[in-house]
Design a protein that fits this description.
It is a single chain. By secondary structure, the chain is mainly α. Helices cover 56% and strands 3% of the residues. It has 3 domains: 12-47; 51-146, Tyrosine recombinase, N-terminal domain (DNA polymerase, domain 1, Orthogonal Bundle); 160-339, hpI Integrase, Chain A, CATH 1.10.443.10. The chain is built from 16 helices and 3 strands. It has a 3-stranded antiparallel beta sheet. Helix 14 crosses helix 16. The protein is elongated. 29% of the residues are buried.
Length: 342
Amino acid sequence: MISFGVYGPVTLAEARAKREEARSQLAKGINPSEARKAGKLAQLSTAGNTFKAIALEWHSAKRTSWTENYAQSVLRLLELNIFPFLGERAIDGITPLELLLVLQKIEDRGAIELASKVRQRCGEVFRYAVITGRTTYNPAPDLASALQTPKRNHYPFLMADELPAFITALENYSGSAVTKLATQLLMLTGVRTIELRAAKWEEFDLDNALWLIPAERMKMKRTHLVPLSTHAVAILRKLEMLTGRYQLVFPGRNNASKPMSEGSINKVLKLIGYHGKATGHGFRHTMSTILHEQGFDSAWIEMQLAHVDKNSVRGTYNHAQYLEGRRIILEWYSNHILTCRE
């Protein structure tokens, strides 16, 4: 027995047509009632079969093994880079070319490593969809050869999920207060280690939260203006009480007229258990990766890292243009670091 609906909304002609369709199914050995149930299930499956729905399901399953900050960063990566373009598409209908075009948009922003990371995350979502029967093919791995290869970084650096343990270890470091503060400031500014070690008090305007590094101390021989976050200024205020009587912010232990030694910060990292896992220079890579994953303007990030435009006129214009933007990203990053504890 099977019903075709309520008389009135369903006319006799429609009921007869449905009856003939049911008879035809029976003749083929198909149970009309079961076929109808399967159709309804298929419709429900399609509604919950979008890339976004499956990605959120995957994220919910994985987050129990992640820290809260890491879980949020993974979700934000998808929200900013994938959901606006493919989020509402049925996952089994997304073609390799469609995913590639989205990834290439990220590359066009100069975020080569981010594009690689987004591809990997998409691959995890597609793999989950395959395992749970929502699609049969994961296109993400096959796209690796079509994307630009991120430049190999020769300096060990921390991933986002490694920061909480590192921050806790650094805060518990009981050695030199000056080198500890230097390590913290290096993380928050994204400058090169030599630019930090040789810093002079005359370069800082703490009232306006600015640090002007002269051209002769910069790798590219161009003046670099560094906006300082609230936390960075607080660190410098502490340092002022420790080394404010010297010309250098970080004077050497044996000779105050010379900067602290090149290996001072890396020695701190070694003593807290991060030898071979993190370096002073690697903090720049960590900052770049996290800020790009958060969707901040790539131009702001590159300017903060002093990857300036080779055109000197255009570079000077952008230097001023991006200052407020860089204040925003450094304040966000500083707050992220402050809350990133185990």
